[in-house]
Structure formats: C-alpha cells, structure tokens
Design a protein that fits this description.
single chain, about 170 residues, alpha+beta, Immunoglobulin-like, seven-stranded antiparallel β-sheet
C-alpha cells in the first residue's frame, strides 16, 4: 500500500512562511514605539534643557572671546547673592559690581539670567535696580536650594561687561 503525500500547505507551514516577517515587523514597531515614548518622557522632564541658540553662539565664538578680552580690559568684577523665596516673601538676586580699584560701578544697566543646575529649562530673567552705588537688586521667583548659574550682563555708557557666576544656595 502506498501512501500519498499531501502537498497542500498545513497550518504550520503557513506560520513558518509568515512568522519571520511578522516577527521582524513587530520588533520594529515595538522599537519605534518605545523610542517615541522615551522622547515624550524626556520632553516633559523639567531637568532636561537645551541651551537656547547654541548653534548661533557657537558661530559667534570669536565675539565671545572678544567680549572676554573687553571684560579683562575693564577690570570689573561681579559677585552675586541669591536669596530663595519663602511663603509670603519673594526671592531676591543681588549683584555687586566693582572696578579694578575696588570702587563701585554705579549707574549701570544690569540684567541677569539665572537657572538652577537641576532645572536648567526654568530660566529666570530680571533687570536689576541700583539699591546702593554698585549694588543692584531684583526680585526673582527662585525656590530651589542647590547649585545655580547666574549670567550677568552690565551696560554702562559704551562699556559692556559679562560674567557667568556659580552659586551654592542653601535652603532658608
């Protein structure tokens, strides 16, 4: 007795034929989906920050170095104090400016950009008022203790001075 072999594809042979392409497509879809999920989470993270106009700043690197030379020629120095806000009391940033001889640099326009290192996407901008000769203050909505970066820009007549300061701010 001879047996005939069935040449029609069985259920297993169909799966064997389509299993690999379906598996590869499934892996690609899962990979793309997980990448999209990670991007969404990263965009919502307040600790994630991109330096604004970083490409333009890189292109203007020679201007940055020229400003550093002007800062040295001016001989000015800046120091900063950051007081954190508390309930019922706003925070405050204070910048003290001195020339090379230690005299106050008065009648200047002083502005700051401040950011906490752990939340660099939250930047605080303020234009400071002169409280005393060479001492400038402004309210700032800073609540977080820790490491801060304060970028100071000073303009007095034709003189322009910039400085980036690092501050360790303790909890009140």
């Amino acid at each position: 007795m001879t047996r005939s072999t069935d040449t029609t594809p069985s259920h297993r042979s169909r799966w064997a034929r389509w299993g690999w392409p379906i598996g590869i497509a499934l892996v690609l879809v899962l990979s793309a989906g997980s990448n999209i999920a990670i991007m969404v989470i990263a965009r919502q993270d307040k600790a994630f920050a991109i330096e604004p106009e970083y490409y333009e700043k890189a292109l203007r690197w020679d201007d940055t170095m020229a400003q550093e030379r002007r800062n040295i020629a001016l001989g000015w120095d800046a120091s900063a104090v950051l007081v954190l806000a508390r309930p019922g009391r706003p925070g405050e940033v204070e910048i003290a400016l001195r020339d090379g001889a230690g005299r106050p640099v008065d009648r200047a326009v002083v502005s700051v950009e401040a950011m906490h290192n752990a939340r660099a996407s939250q930047r605080y901008h303020a234009t400071l008022a002169e409280a005393l000769p060479g001492t400038y203050r402004a309210a700032i909505d800073a609540h977080r203790p820790g490491e801060w970066e304060v970028r100071v820009t000073v303009q007095r007549a034709e003189d322009r001075f910039t400085r980036t300061l690092r501050l360790s701010v303790a909890a009140s």
